[in-house]
Amino acid sequence: MASEHIAPAWRSLKSRLIVGFSLFGVFLAALWLGGLAWAFLMAFASFLAARELVLMMHQARLARPLLPVLIVFGMALMLAGLRGKTSWFMPTLTLAVVGTFLGVLLRGLAMPKTKLPQSGALADIGATLVVLFYLAFLPAHYLLLRLLGGQSLGLGYVLFTALVVMASDIGAYAFGKWLGRTPLLSAISPKKTREGALGGLFFALLVGLTAGPACGIKTTHVLILGSLLVLAAQLGDLVESMMKRDAGVKDTGVLLKAHGGVLDRIDSWLFAAPLAYYYIEWVVLRQGWLWNEAIPFLQKQF
After folding, report:
1. Do 72 and 114 contact (CB within 8 A), yes or no?
2. pLDDT band at 2, cuts 50/70/90?
3. Is the model's pLDDT at 142 over the cut of 50?
């Protein structure tokens, strides 16, 4: 019985590993080249994932996000990341919020007799901004991370983040399949277990401790940042499961065939990007907004 249980799990894991490492090869090539190649990969993956999420919302009759807003301001956020201009984020997001409200208003005026399917202006506004933040603002931090500390260090930081997130996914899947008994959050994702979550943490830290020194990250930071990245990866997975459950679908797409859509593959990467960037900038390198503005301001006050 044990062999019957393990064999299908191993075949499924093997298939996931083949797809995962193939995609990781493309990821590594773009990461090594940096610049426009890296930005194009991030923007292309974000576009495909956003398209899947928008279609999922349409098909589930939840909302109708504004595509022009997503395309224009999504590209602007990616450009800010490519240039390393965090100061561009706030103006871009501010204009995106205004543009979303204006776009929904104008669409309503242009089609006054159209009754939105199970949604209205508030749903469309919220959906547009959620997709923009989720699949443009968050991934843009991978572009910032690639530039952090110079080209060689930035490459190491992204690579460390990617390896930890991948290890978390693989460990959680393998341990969950073989040892999983206790549901993690059955109301959101019935197949995820506490044993899988702990297995993901264990495997991710093991990989992180091995790769950390080569990526320019000391052991103390490996343990802290690695643990935080695992939490971010598992949160990202659960968030996407929550959205799919709300839409009543199993996968966000079929681009990767049995492995679902692009969003199904990058969900655990999304929250990891800003977390890695700000931890490394503020804690490891002791620079950026926290050290240049926030701490000096507090010192003057107190």
Report:
1. no
2. very low
3. yes
* pLDDT tens figures, 65-75: 999 999 999 99
Taking residues 112-140, report their average pLDDT: 83
- Distance (Å, rounded) from C-alpha 247 to C-alpha 54? 11
Residue length of the chain = 302
Q: What is the 3-state secondary structure (H, E, C) of the chain?
A: CHHHHHHHHHHHHHHHHHHHHHHHHHHHHHHHHCHHHHHHHHHHHHHHHHHHHHHHHHHCCCCCCCHHHHHHHHHHHHHHHHHCCHHHHHHHHHHHHHHHHHHHHHHHHHCCCCCCCCCCHHHHHHHHHHHHHHHHHHHHHHHHHHHCCCHHHHHHHHHHHHHHHHHHHHHHHHHHHHHCCCEEECCCEEEEEHHHHHHHHHHHHHHHHHHCHHHCCCHHHHHHHHHHHHHHHHHHHHHHHHHHHHHCCCCCCCCCHHHCCHHHHHHHHHCHHHHHHHHHHHHHCCCCHHHHHHHHHHHHHC
Residues 6+ apart with CB under 8 A from 197: 172, 176, 184, 234
pTM above 0.85, yes or no: yes
